Amino acid sequence: MPGQGWYQFGELTLAFVLSGLVGLEREIRQKSAGLRTYSLVGVAAALFMLVSKYGFTDVLANERVVLDPSRVAAQIVSGIGFIGGGVIFMRRDVVRGLTTAASLWVTAAVGMACGAGLLALAVAATIGHFVIMLGIPLLLRYLPRERRTVATLRVSYDDGKGILRAILVDCSRLRFAIDHVRIGHNGQYEEVPEAIRDQADDEGTDLSPRAPAGVTLSMQVKGKRPISHLISSLSDIPGVTAVGTVGHDELD
């Protein structure tokens, strides 16, 4: 039966190598989908393409049967959406996994190109993936940013664990200026003077009120990065239970 020669095995092998390279990059970055997932997606997409091209030759021997070989390939595009949807999730108002889902989409396209015999396009698409994933973040560091983000954050966290210091350190690390800090419990806030806040930051002192329940911190932050970066970073601090914005604006 045609379609089972060394050339087709070579196409599957190339799909495995290219998708494996993409998966290795994501594995090193410790993303939710890694080497195994990307390799399987690339090889499966290539195999579906080969089945679409050669799997119905015996049926087509009957002149009364007419098939559209592109229909199998079209279903790959729909099917990969389910896998991509599985790696996209929202955590505390921050959407994560979009880049991983998009790279899975590219990997499926690379596998389809290998299965279709478009080997040069498959290699070019893989190179383009690495240019986007590795080169563009470096370029963005040098682009001028004309706007700054101003937002009021409300952070809830467990009391008595030194979490306030970790929050202030994260804001400083991401270059967000802090103003109008209020710390409260059960909806009651207490204004914290800037001098006391700076001294507590230097000494590692937790300014949160001593209470058996959680603490709510309200603060205004200003910075050049998207506020979603700060929310994501604060959400990863152990002991932080909720992070949200009260107000959000961008100033020239």
Automatic annotation (TrEMBL):
UniProt domain MgtC/SapB/SrpB/YhiD N-terminal: residue ranges: 12-136
Task: List the transmembrane segments.
Answer: 6-23, 35-52, 72-90, 102-121, 127-144
Q: How does it sit in the membrane?
A: Multi-pass membrane protein
Sorted alphabetically, which InterPro entries does this protein's record hold? MgtC/SapB/SrpB/YhiD_fam (IPR003416), MgtC_SapB_SrpB_YhiD_N (IPR049177)
Could you name the Gene Ontology cellular component terms for this entry?
plasma membrane
Entry keyword annotation includes Cell membrane: yes
Q: Where in the cell is it found?
A: Cell inner membrane; Cell membrane
User: What's a Pfam family in this record?
Assistant: MgtC
Tell me which domain of life the UniProt entry assigns to the organism this sequence originates from.
Answer: Bacteria
Q: Which UniProt keywords apply?
A: Cell inner membrane, Cell membrane, Membrane, Transmembrane, Transmembrane helix
Indicate yes or no for the key word Lipid metabolism: no
Regarding protein family, the annotation reads: Belongs to the MgtC/SapB family.
PANTHER family, per database record: MAGNESIUM TRANSPORTER YHID-RELATED (PTHR33778:SF1), PROTEIN MGTC (PTHR33778)
Question: What is the protein named?
Answer: Protein MgtC
Q: What is the lineage of its organism?
A: Bacteria, Pseudomonadati, Pseudomonadota, Alphaproteobacteria, Acetobacterales
